[in-house]
Design brief:
alpha+beta, 188 residues, 7 strands, 7-stranded antiparallel sheet, Umud Fragment, subunit A
Length: 188
């Protein structure tokens, strides 16, 4: 293979790698920012993403797991479903909670009332009204859970964010310097 062909393949491979790393970092930061700064009031096509913060749903969902919930009609929620909702009173006031439905009632106005409880909890949550519900948990992402748990550690932050950012910046600077040097040599 010619030297020029190898250089071209190397440049293209490096650009593709930089693009993938850049896209990963941007998407990850976008998702984290949307989750953190919108107080989970933003849903994309009826989907929301939540990170488990307590052990109340262990062993089904562990601390740091990333869950996706989908908006669902209250009448489609069944006992045993895990739902995410905004707590209205007690210890869960103004907190997003993901717990299992243990009973369902209908009040005199026809509104569904949900009894929920964490799997690992002894005490049931305050009654959840259908207006509090964000959605039913439909998926636990193993990949995002791993990344979320890893990035929370200092080593993980360095390995998954800081090193790739410096790699992209450094490789782009080096490419520019090498191109400039090659032009200078070709002029001589």
């Amino acid at each position: 293979m010619k030297k020029e062909t190898i250089k071209k393949i190397f440049r293209i491979s490096k650009k593709i790698l930089n693009i993938f790393i850049g896209i990963f970092i941007v998407l990850f930061l976008l998702v984290v920012c949307l989750q953190r700064f919108t107080d989970n009031n933003l849903s994309l096509f009826g989907f929301r993403m939540f990170t488990v913060l307590t052990g109340s749903m262990e062993p089904k969902y562990n601390v740091g797991d990333v869950l996706f919930s989908k908006s669902i009609a209250p009448e489609d929620i069944e006992v045993g479903d895990a739902i995410s909702y905004l707590g209205a009173s007690g210890d869960v006031a103004n907190k997003v909670v993901t717990h299992e439905v243990v009973a369902i009632e209908t009040d005199e106005n026809g509104e569904k009332l949900f009894h929920t409880k964490g799997i690992a909890n002894i005490i049931e949550d305050p009654i959840v009204h259908e207006s509090q519900i964000y959605g039913k948990v439909i998926h636990k992402s193993a990949v995002l859970s791993f990344i979320s748990n890893t990035i929370r550690t200092p080593v993980g932050l360095v390995v998954l964010i800081i090193i790739p950012v410096f790699y992209i910046i450094g490789s782009e600077m080096l490419t520019g310097l090498l191109a400039r040097e090659e032009k200078r040599r070709n002029r001589e």
